[in-house]
Design brief:
The protein is of the alpha+beta class. It has helices at 9-23, 35-45, 50-63, 67-72, 75-82, 89-104, 113-116, 124-135, 144-153, 163-176, 182-195, 214-218, 279-291, 337-340, 347-358; strands spanning 234-244, 250-254, 265-266, 269-271, 294-307, 311-323, 332-335. The structure holds a DNA duplex (11 and 11 nucleotides). Its EC number is 3.2.2.31.
Length: 359
DNA sequence: AAGACGTGGGC
DNA sequence: TGCCCAAGTCT
């Protein structure tokens, strides 16, 4: 039994693309088909809502309008333009990949799946999105929307959280994608998922392809897609301190270039390990050894919780003073509140700063 | 394959 | 409040 038996591919393409031509949103990355802008938008849109991305995209393109300008930009500036968007490795990978395109491809984004998919941060979805939208190549671009929409239309009950399932959807898309307009076909599927075929309470009565939809016919649209639940985030106790010197400058530290919040700046902190001695003593000992400074840590004045996708920071926030000299380095600096604006802080540490200024 | 990797919004 | 999500990729 083939899922596509009795499925009218030509009529489906027509109904879907006609709807998209009529109803698509005006979005800044739809102004033209510049492969670079398509690329930037696709990276920003990974796991991120359109409304969140719009201002970031406009600002990013203002600052880095071309491959060349981004390739030549300093990482500090590039990270700053991403501040608050999350998944920061996206922009570090984009930066590295754009440099590669500048050097290896003369500033032209390559137009084959083989070459595009080798670029850092460009996986199967983004490869298909760039190829179809910027170059009109009929390549699948299977994201969460496409899996949700297709699982309903074809009544597919495989778990879309499994990596293997995405491959199966790619195989199906290869069979039904419009060869004449793969760009609109792929975008229409995603637009439909964003506007009509939404996760909860899909607006089937407004759907341009409901006559093609098996889940709608069977009344099971709310049961699809099947998606296994993610593990709950793990709570972690942490102590952080806003340290001032005699000039009221604040001590900040640059995180390592790998892992969580890589290369972002933060206030000195560490994970609380045992109950053997107080959080304050642990923090003090850690900072003295890690940064080779002497401090007088005061009292905790607030607590801040920050929830990531996979963990929760429960941060006890202290204030304190630095005794004597600080030897600054590439990863340790003393800055005024004004100067701090140029550094990229994760939202959790932006909140620590606010709590300090408001205390 | 499954976990790491951010954040803000909706209900 | 708490949970799920939103145009995924890397290891």
């Amino acid at each position: 039994m083939n899922k596509l038996d009795h499925f009218n591919i030509d009529q489906f393409q027509l109904d879907l693309i006609s709807w998209f031509e009529q109803e698509q949103r005006d979005l800044p990355w739809r102004m033209d088909k510049d492969p670079y802008k398509v690329w930037v938008s696709e990276i920003m849109l990974q796991q991120t809502r359109v409304d969140t991305v719009i201002p970031y995209f406009n600002n990013f393109i203002d600052q880095f309008p071309t491959i060349e300008t981004l390739a030549e930009a300093e990482e500090e500036k590039v990270l700053k333009a991403w501040e608050g968007l999350g998944y920061y490795s996206r922009v570090r990978n984009l930066h590295a990949a754009v440099k590669e395109v500048a050097e290896k491809y003369g500033g032209q984004v390559p137009n084959t799946a083989k070459e595009i998919s080798k670029l850092k941060g460009v996986g199967p979805y983004t490869t298909g999105a760039i190829l179809s939208i910027a170059y009109g190549v009929p390549e699948p671009a299977v994201d969460g929307n496409v899996m949700r929409v297709l699982s309903r239309i074809l009544s597919i009950w495989d778990d879309i959280a499994k990596p293997k399932t995405r491959q199966q959807f790619e195989d199906i898309i290869r069979e039904i994608i419009s060869k004449e307009n793969p760009s609109f076909f792929n975008q229409a599927l995603m637009e439909l998922g964003a506007l009509i075929c939404i996760p909860a309470n899909p607006a089937c009565l407004l759907c341009p392809v409901r006559n093609h939809c098996r889940a709608f016919a069977e009344g099971v649209q709310k049961e699809l897609p099947v998606k296994s639940k993610k593990k709950a985030p793990v709570p972690l106790s942490m102590a952080a301190v806003v340290l001032q010197n005699e000039d009221k400058k604040l001590l900040i530290h640059k995180r390592p270039d790998k892992g969580l919040l890589a290369n972002l700046w933060e206030f000195p902190n560490h994970e609380s390990i045992s109950e053997l001695y107080t959080q304050k003593e642990q923090l003090s000992d850690f900072i003295n050894q890690e940064f080779k400074i002497q401090t007088k840590i005061g009292e905790a004045y607030t607590t801040i919780q920050h929830i990531f996708s996979h963990l929760i920071w429960n941060i006890t926030v202290f204030e304190g003073e630095i005794i004597g000299e600080v030897i600054e380095s590439d990863s340790l600096k003393l800055v005024t509140v004004e100067e701090l604006r140029q550094f990229t802080l994760p939202v959790s540490h932006q909140n620590i700063l606010k709590s300090f200024l408001d205390r």
